């Protein structure tokens, strides 16, 4: 149940009044819910802030508004958390321009848990995909909640990997929770709802706009104790997230990449700029965030892998190889090799990228 | 005077007997054809008149009525020129004996009296023999084609006067010598796998696909060699049996695609229609309901290069033939069933620009564009494709290496062996390959041991395999086991089958 103060903030949100303006307006009132009190509105000095505001406030039918909001939230199964709600995460309060209202679906307790934001390009290279998967797995395995943005590529891998490994994940959307963007990730969003949380600062009916993706990024970075950048182009949304993380005083972790790879241009530049962000292992992140690694002495799988396994592993530890190259160097028959590789992939010993390239995991 | 000659026409792959009746009598000189003739048949009037005159006979100047019976079936093509001419000559007494009553006569005439080849001789003669007709006069050019039919006397003629002389017993023609099926000899020089460098995974997958009759799709960058690999497939396909060869020849004969100098198709067809091909071109149809590419590819390979570029509706029509092995074409002229028992080999790029996921190349497509590209292939269609593999670009060293790869003949030996195992297993069931197994057969022949089951369980967890995906996996694993000569499916076979499902690109 929303209290009247919360409804007040939601009213501001529904009228597109920005956070800074709301602050100014509320200076004129004792309580937030006073804005629904006609007498108090008449006495308040609001004209200096917004001339039409007074009329708007006077024309509000509080009961109608309350019913409308409650109906709408109920219909979509959304719960709203406002700046003054008890559940509103502290970590969002101290950032610039915090969201007035968070619309959520899923487990809201995750907002106040220790989390790591993992971001990167929408078109990761094979290398980026593997790095992303590995880091996500280790970090969520250590009990951190992962935070990402439900976009293609890195975001999708983060959410998928976390869920697959039984972790919790938060996805921050750039539009209302009634319209999932990109539509391709609709089914993923359902799974996130069940195994984590969907969050947006945009109310129902708001479609994502160009600017809202950048706005969204500030919430992504703010929700994490730190932000991990896997791969990023030179000028990209990911870089804006990195900037937000720095502004918000969060830790920043950047994974270096191939200097010739376009997808690593942004990340390599960041490391060049702030050498301390250089990150090559999940352990470093856990250490910096002072998280104790859970003891995950893996339960060994009982699928037999034959002796060729070590041959393949030693070849792959030098460099990633395509199927053909592996076949030639290991002198294993293609039929045997493909069976072997799939078994090793299932045991997370190797990882297949696009176009038959294999990496050591 | 009245005379009657028997001829054969075609409805789809089936021939039916047509009587050409001619009546010449008193009246104003006229010349009419009745009995639902199409344009080509109507025009035969002029050809017949000139052919008779130029062969040195007199064209009767009385009222001539020609009837093609049964009168309610549409007749098409130029098959009737020769029987009409013979019937006219018989009615005015130039052909004196009644010998012509014993023959089925088929042929087209030229203005000079020469007899030209016609389409569909083989299916027509096969149908005629089934109905008990054994004596035929056919164009000389169709001689080879007709020579493969057992138990018939075929006389080949090259012009009208020869025909007349033969029917008047003035010329002694010997029946066409029966040809003996010598098995497969390569019609064309096909590509050989020994020239495909590298591509170990793709080659292995193709071997499996051909062995078990599985459909396969190859995904890879432009220039990776998908087309080259596809072109090699006929070289490792099992030998044609005579029945298969006849079936292929029938279809090719009515489509007019037969090499008349050979008379029979002796190698498996490899059809690769361009992606602008219309639905009708693929399925068959048109005015005469001609067979399309899927039927011409029957018993061979239908190769669809750049699969997503085909129009969606065209691709969807492939679903019936992929399921049933036949295609039904319905047109105004009737409903015909053609064989469409082909192996589908498809190729595609990973994205519109072709570079997605290619090492060393930059893809310029938006994630949305890539998704849309893949979405052009419908789920039901992909469901019918058992193997999905990535084909990578070949490294420079591989291209330049002088070392010859394993030749097709070696691969073919393994394929033949695996096919033999399948033939024995499915004896008398009407199923020939693992790909066509029914669910009952899968239960019977694809039992898993405990280790395979454990592996399958792990795979289910890891790759989210659907029930359909599971069946496909079992079928492919069965084929791999057959190639291995193993009676039961082992965990290695399951693992290998898992390797040929492209999880990232297609949700299976």
Short description:
With 361 residues, chain A is of the alpha/beta class. Chain A is built from 16 helices and 11 strands. In chain A, the strands form 2 sheets. Chain A has an 8-stranded mixed β-sheet with strand order 1-2-6-5-4-3-7-8, sandwiched between helices.
How would you describe this protein?
The complex is a heterodimer of chains A (361) and B (508). Helices cover 45% and strands 12% of the residues of chain A. The two termini of chain A are 48 Å apart. Chain A contains 16 helices and eleven strands. Chain A has an eight-stranded mixed β-sheet, with helices on both faces. Chain A is α/β, with parallel strands linked by helices. Chain B is α/β, with parallel strands linked by helices and 508 residues long. Chain B has three domains: 2-167, Ribosomal Protein S5, domain 2, CATH 3.30.230; 193-428, Rossmann fold (3-Layer(aba) Sandwich); 437-508, Orthogonal Bundle (Helicase, Ruva Protein, domain 3), CATH 1.10.8. Helices cover 36% and strands 17% of the residues of chain B. Chain B has 21 helices and 18 strands. Chain B has helices at residues 39-42, 44-54, 81-91, 121-130, 143-146, 160-167, 200-212, 226-232, 242-254, 279-283, 293-296, 312-316, 319-324, 367-375, 379-383, 396-400, 408-425, 439-445, 450-463, 467-483, 491-499; strands at residues 2-11, 14-25, 30-34, 63-69, 104-105, 108-109, 115-116, 135-139, 153-157, 216-220, 270-271, 284-285, 290-291, 301-304, 326-331, 334-339, 343-348, 387-391. In chain B, a hairpin with a 5-residue loop joins strand 6 and strand 7.
């Amino acid at each position: 149940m929303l209290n009247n103060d919360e409804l007040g903030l939601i009213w501001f949100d529904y009228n597109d009044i920005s956070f800074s303006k709301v602050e100014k307006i509320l200076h004129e009132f004792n309580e937030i819910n006073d804005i629904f009190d006609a007498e108090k509105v008449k006495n308040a000095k609001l004209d200096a802030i917004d001339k039409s505001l007074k009329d708007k406030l006077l024309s509000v039918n509080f009961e109608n508004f309350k019913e409308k909001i409650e109906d709408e939230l109920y219909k979509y199964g959304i719960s709203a958390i406002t700046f003054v709600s008890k559940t509103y995460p502290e970590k969002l309060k101290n950032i610039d321009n915090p969201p007035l209202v968070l619309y959520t679906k899923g487990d809201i307790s995750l907002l106040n848990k220790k989390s790591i934001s993992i971001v990167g390009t929408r078109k990761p290279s094979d290398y980026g995909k593997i790095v992303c998967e590995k880091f996500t797995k280790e970090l969520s395995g250590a009990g951190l909640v992962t935070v990402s943005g439900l976009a293609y590529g890195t975001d999708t891998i983060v959410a998928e990997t976390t869920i697959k490994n039984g972790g919790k994940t938060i996805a921050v959307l750039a539009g209302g929770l009634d319209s999932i963007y990109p539509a391709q990730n609709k089914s993923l969003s359902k799974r996130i709802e069940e195994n984590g949380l969907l969050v947006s600062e945009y109310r129902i009916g708001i479609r994502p706009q160009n600017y809202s993706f950048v706005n969204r990024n500030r919430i992504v970075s703010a929700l994490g104790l730190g932000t991990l950048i896997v791969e990023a182009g030179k000028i990209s949304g990911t870089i804006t997230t990195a900037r937000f993380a720095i502004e918000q005083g969060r830790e920043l972790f950047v994974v270096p990449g191939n200097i010739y790879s376009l997808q690593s241009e942004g990340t390599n530049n960041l490391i060049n700029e702030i050498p301390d962000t250089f990150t090559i292992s999940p352990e470093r992140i856990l250490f910096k965030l002072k998280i104790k690694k859970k003891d995950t002495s893996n339960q060994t799988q009982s699928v037999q892998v034959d002796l060729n396994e070590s041959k393949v592993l030693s070849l792959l530890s030098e460099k990633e190889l395509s199927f053909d190259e592996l076949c030639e160097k290991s002198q294993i028959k293609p039929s045997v090799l493909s069976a072997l590789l799939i078994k090793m992939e299932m045991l997370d010993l190797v990882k297949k990228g696009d176009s038959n390239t294999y990496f050591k995991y | 005077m009245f005379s009657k000659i028997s001829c054969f026409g075609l409805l789809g792959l089936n021939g039916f007997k047509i009587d050409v009746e001619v009546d010449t009598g008193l009246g104003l000189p006229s010349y009419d054809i009745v009995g639902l003739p199409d344009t080509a048949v109507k025009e035969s009037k002029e050809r017949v008149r000139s052919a008779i005159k130029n062969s040195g006979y007199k064209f009767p100047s009385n009222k001539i009525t020609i009837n093609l019976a049964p009168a309610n079936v549409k007749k098409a093509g130029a098959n009737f020129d020769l029987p009409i001419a013979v019937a006219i000559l018989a009615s005015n007494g130039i052909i004196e004996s009644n010998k012509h009553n014993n023959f089925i006569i088929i042929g087209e005439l030229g203005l000079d009296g020469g007899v030209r080849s016609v389409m569909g001789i083989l299916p027509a003669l096969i149908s005629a023999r089934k109905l008990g007709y054994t004596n035929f006069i056919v164009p000389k050019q169709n001689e080879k084609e007709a020579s493969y039919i057992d138990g018939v006397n075929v006389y080949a003629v090259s012009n009208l006067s020869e025909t007349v002389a033969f029917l008047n017993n003035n010329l002694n023609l010997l029946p066409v010598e029966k040809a003996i099926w010598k098995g497969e000899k390569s019609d064309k020089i096909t590509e050989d796998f020994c020239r495909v460098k590298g591509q170990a995974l793709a080659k292995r997958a193709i071997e499996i696909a051909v062995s078990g009759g599985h459909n396969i799709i190859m995904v890879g960058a432009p220039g990776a060699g998908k087309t080259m690999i596809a072109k090699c497939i006929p070289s490792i396909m099992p030998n044609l049996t005579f029945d298969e060869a006849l079936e292929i020849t029938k279809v090719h004969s009515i489509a007019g695609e037969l090499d008349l100098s050979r008379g029979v198709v002796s190698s498996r067809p490899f059809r690769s229609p361009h992606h602008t091909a219309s639905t009708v071109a693929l399925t068959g149809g048109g005015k005469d309901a001609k067979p399309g590419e899927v039927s011409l590819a029957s018993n061979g390979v239908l190769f669809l290069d750049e699969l997503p570029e085909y129009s969606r509706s065209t691709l969807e029509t492939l679903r019936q033939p992929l399921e049933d092995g036949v295609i039904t074409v319905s047109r105004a002229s009737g409903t015909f069933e053609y064989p469409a028992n082909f192996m589908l080999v498809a190729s595609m790029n990973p994205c519109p620009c072709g570079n997605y996921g290619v090492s060393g190349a930059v893809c310029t497509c938006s994630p949305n564009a890539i998704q849309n590209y893949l979405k052009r292939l419908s789920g039901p269609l992909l469901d019918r494709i058992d193997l999905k593999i990535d084909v990578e670009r070949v490294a420079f060293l591989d291209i330049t290496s002088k070392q010859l790869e394993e030749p097709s003949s070696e691969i073919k030996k393994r394929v033949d062996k695996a096919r033999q195992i399948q033939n024995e297993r499915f004896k008398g069931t009407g199923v020939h390959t693992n790909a066509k197994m029914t669910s009952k057969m899968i239960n019977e022949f694809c039992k898993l041991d405990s280790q395979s089951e454990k592996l399958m369980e792990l795979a289910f967890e890891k790759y989210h395999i659907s029930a359909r995906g599971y069946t496909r996996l079992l079928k492919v694993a069965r084929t791999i086991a057959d190639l291995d000569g193993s009676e039961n499916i082992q965990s290695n076979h399951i693992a290998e089958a898992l390797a040929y499902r492209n999880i990232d690109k297609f949700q299976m």
